[in-house]
Structures are given as C-alpha cells and as structure tokens.
Specification:
With 167 residues, the protein is α/β, with parallel strands linked by helices. The chain is 33% helix and 20% strand. Helix 1 links the parallel strand 1 and strand 2. Helix 1 crosses helix 5.
C-alpha cells in the first residue's frame, strides 16, 4: 500500500483526567501512543476541547472518538456507534459527559459536511470523583477499549496486525 492511498485517521480522546473515569479517552490515547503507528494516524488528546475539536477533524478521512458515556448501565460497558446513532442514544438518556461540546462538534461537522466517517467508542464510567486514576473496574476495561480502537485504526488503513512473535 502506498502512502498516497493511506487515509489520514484521527483518533481523538476526550475527557477530563482530573475526574477519574471521565478521563478514559485520554488514558486510551496514552496507551495507543505506546504502539507504533504509520504517520497517517494522528493521536489527539482532545481534553474537554468543545467546538475547537472540529478543526482537529478537518482533513481527516476517518475519525475515531473515545469518550465516557453516561448511559445508566453497568460501569465499564463499552459502546461503539456512529454519530448518526447519537439521537438513538439521546432517546435512551445516554449522554456523553461532554454532551454540549462533542454533540456540537459532530452536529456542526455534519451540517458543514466536513465530518469524516466517524466511529465513537463510549465507556460507561463508575465514578466522576476527583482523582487522576481510573477506578479498578474501568481500568480493567482499558485494554479492551485500546484493542477495539486499534482494530478500528487497522480497518481504516486496510492493514492486518499480525504479531511478529507468532512467525
């Protein structure tokens, strides 16, 4: 595969690391940074960036967003959906903990027709108390979230990830 044919993939972690499980998106980005990715993959700590995140998505051909999602379900439940599905989640009272910011970004991006094909991974938090660490329940799910996002990146780039140790 030549570089010209590889799409630019933006992986955007959203969250506030000062509020324990609310920081799942940032923790996931930090774990993904430990892996080697082609230059077409941009890993972004979006913090609680709000509308400023729209510029991060500009020029991307694919986007992957990782965030906490309050859905009133068992802590650690992982959701995977597309922005068009957000109204379904909203009807169920499931909200991103950055509802205004990320909802505005996604809706404005769609309105301006500048939103690339996007997949969102949301994780039900257990605690939003002050603290820099994820709760044990959510920390136990972090490797699964990272694996799911890694698989999504590879799918976007049309590459297989085989372990070199298996050869």
């Amino acid at each position: 595969m030549t570089e010209e044919k590889c799409p630019k993939v933006v992986v955007l972690g959203i969250g506030n690391v000062l509020l324990s499980d609310e920081g799942i998106g940032i923790h996931a980005i930090n774990e993904l940074r430990k892996e080697s990715w082609p230059e077409q993959v941009e890993l972004v700590d979006g913090g609680t960036g709000g509308l400023g995140l729209l510029s991060v998505l500009e020029g991307a051909e694919r986007a992957i967003i990782i965030d906490s999602l309050e859905a009133g379900v068992e802590p650690g439940t992982i959701f995977k959906f597309q922005p068009k599905d957000l109204t379904t989640f909203m009807d169920r009272s499931a909200l991103s903990l950055h509802q205004v910011g990320i909802m505005e970004v996604l809706n404005l991006g769609r309105t301006l027709d500048s939103l690339p094909p996007t997949v969102v991974f949301g994780v039900q938090p257990k605690s939003l108390a002050m603290g820099l660490d994820l709760t044990p329940e959510i920390k136990a799910k972090l490797p699964r979230v990272v694996k799911m996002v890694s698989d999504e990146i590879c799918q976007a780039l049309c590459i297989r990830r085989d372990s070199d140790e298996d050869d």
